[in-house]
Design the sequence.
């Protein structure tokens, strides 16, 4: 029997709907095709154990799983639930009537429970665009996906709930989030505020001017002068995020897996402070499975480079183009992804590694650069 279910693949901050086709025929082996990566190939063992522990059966026949379009590489473990649902439907353990109305995503544990996925928000946006009725996903990601209007979002804890829902034996509670209320209730809720700073009038005035114009800043001063403390509070005097900026920022953090389960939206401007040993790829994004880097995670916020001279020259050089274009393009042999990276760059450094100002003596001690 042939059954189709639907999942989604995330490229950059956009999603593409993936059709998972499962056919069960006489035979003995399990095949999965359509450019799956290692994590997807290993899904057989997770699905097999999950079904057994939830009192379902894995067919002992030939099972062929096709992930279409077959020319797009599929990555990650979030297709476990999509494949498992199709296998159950193809083997007659699940009703197929409403399967084509929902996007189904989730990583299975061996006991049948679900682990959170990355990119729930872009997937939900694409699901609504493609005309799907709803989105079934792990409960941890439900609030994130529910900020998309006109899409039924159901957060589930295990595969038993999914089977009960499609068989009509269980009613799932729809997760509803009032996007605008959620946005305005937590807007500008910063842990560190610029108003906490006492004194430092000159530097405060300089940072206020930089914030007003969106200018990049470099802070030079001896250790303990307050450079990092002031930089951390800079986002609190930047203009509040608009709803469009908030959604765009949330997409990036969702794809990177940086969004907490309790959060539906990123409502404050990001502040990222990578260590000076960071690699080029971690800073600008990329890797074998391209992911957003620190400059994209700082999108619509502040990127703080503490101890600027300690950063590798190559890491600083690769930031040239993103600083100008406000986006970073990562190219591979078969595809190209774009991540937005419009941020305010703040850097700090000491005037000399061996110079320390002594307030008691009123002078600097150590060597001074020529």
Sequence:
């Amino acid at each position: 029997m042939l059954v189709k279910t639907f999942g989604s693949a995330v490229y950059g901050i956009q999603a593409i709907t993936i059709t998972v086709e499962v056919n069960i025929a006489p035979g003995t082996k399990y095949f999965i095709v359509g450019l799956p990566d290692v994590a997807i190939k290993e899904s057989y063992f997770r699905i097999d154990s999950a079904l057994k522990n939830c009192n379902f059966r894995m067919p002992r026949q030939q099972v062929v799983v096709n992930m279409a379009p077959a020319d797009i590489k599929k990555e990650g473990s979030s297709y476990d639930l999509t494949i498992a649902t199709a296998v159950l439907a193809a083997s007659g353990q699940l009703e197929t009537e409403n399967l084509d109305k929902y996007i189904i995503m989730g990583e299975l544990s061996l006991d049948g429970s679900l682990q959170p996925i990355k990119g729930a928000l872009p997937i939900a946006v694409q699901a609504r665009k493609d005309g799907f009725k709803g989105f079934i996903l792990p409960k941890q990601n439900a609030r994130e996906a529910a900020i998309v209007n006109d899409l039924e979002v159901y957060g589930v804890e295990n595969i038993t709930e999914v089977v009960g829902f499609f068989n009509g034996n269980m009613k799932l509670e729809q997760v509803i989030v009032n996007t605008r209320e959620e946005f305005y209730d937590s807007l500008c809720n910063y842990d560190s505020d610029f108003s906490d700073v006492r004194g430092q009038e000159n530097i405060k005035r300089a940072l206020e001017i930089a914030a007003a114009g969106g200018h990049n800043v470099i802070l030079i001063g001896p250790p303990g002068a307050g450079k990092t403390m002031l930089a951390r509070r800079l986002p609190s005097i930047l203009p509040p995020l608009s709803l469009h900026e908030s959604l765009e920022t949330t997409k990036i953090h969702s794809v990177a897996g940086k969004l907490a389960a309790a959060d539906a939206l990123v409502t404050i401007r990001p502040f990222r402070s990578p260590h000076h040993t960071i690699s080029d790829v971690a800073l600008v994004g990329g890797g074998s499975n391209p992911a957003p880097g620190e400059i994209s995670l700082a999108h619509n916020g502040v990127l703080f480079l503490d101890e600027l001279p300690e950063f590798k020259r190559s890491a600083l050089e690769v930031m040239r183009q993103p600083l100008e274009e406000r986006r970073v393009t990562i190219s591979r042999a078969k595809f190209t992804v774009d991540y937005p990276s419009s941020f305010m760059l703040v850097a700090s450094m000491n005037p000399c590694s061996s110079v320390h100002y002594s307030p008691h003596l009123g002078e600097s001690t150590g060597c001074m650069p020529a």
Notes: The first helix runs from residue 38 to 41. The first strand starts at residue 2 and ends at 11.
